[in-house]
Write a structure and sequence with these properties.
Helix content is 66%, strand content 0%. The protein has 71 residues and is mostly helical. The chain has one domain. The protein is elongated and about 60 Å long. The chain starts with a helix and ends with a helix.
Amino acid sequence: MLSIAGTSPSVSACDFSTDAGKSARVVHAEILKFQKELLVQLMAHLKNEPPLPLKKLVAKAKRLSALRYQK
């Protein structure tokens, strides 16, 4: 998920369209649109999944840290 959200191709890297009429800018815009929609859909899917053990551990560490600073 991080690699999807954190990477974005440059316009110059998007000159590979099979449609000769599409410019690199158009292909780049389509890729960015697809990337954003993919992230939205993945986030929606993950919200319905049970939390991973690491997520539980991080949440517990945050709670313990918050309790420590309340004293």
